[in-house]
Amino acid sequence: MIFPPGPKASILNTLTYRPGRDPLAFFSGLAREYGDLAYVRLGGERLFVVSDPRVIKDVLVTHDQNFHKSRGLERTKRLLGGGLLTSEDAFHLRQRRLMQPAFHRDRIAAYASTMVAFAERVRNGWTDGATLDVAREMSRLTLLIVGKTLFDADVESQAREVGDAMSRLMHSFWTLMLPFGERLERLPIPYLRRARRARERLDTIIYGIIRERRASGVDRGDLLSTLLLAQDDEDTGRGMTDRQVRDEAMTLFLAGHETTANALTWTWYLLSQAPDVERRVHEEVDRVLSGRLPAVADVDRLPYLTRVVTESMRLYPPAWLVGRRAVNQYSIDGYDVPPRAIIVMSQWIVHRDGRYYTNPERFDPDRWTPEFKASLPRFAYFPFGGGPRQCIGESFAWMELVLVMATIAQRWRFELVPNHPVVPHAVITLRPKYGMKMVARERLVVSG
Question: Which DSSP helix (H) or strand (E) runs through 68?
Answer without folding.
Answer: strand 67-69
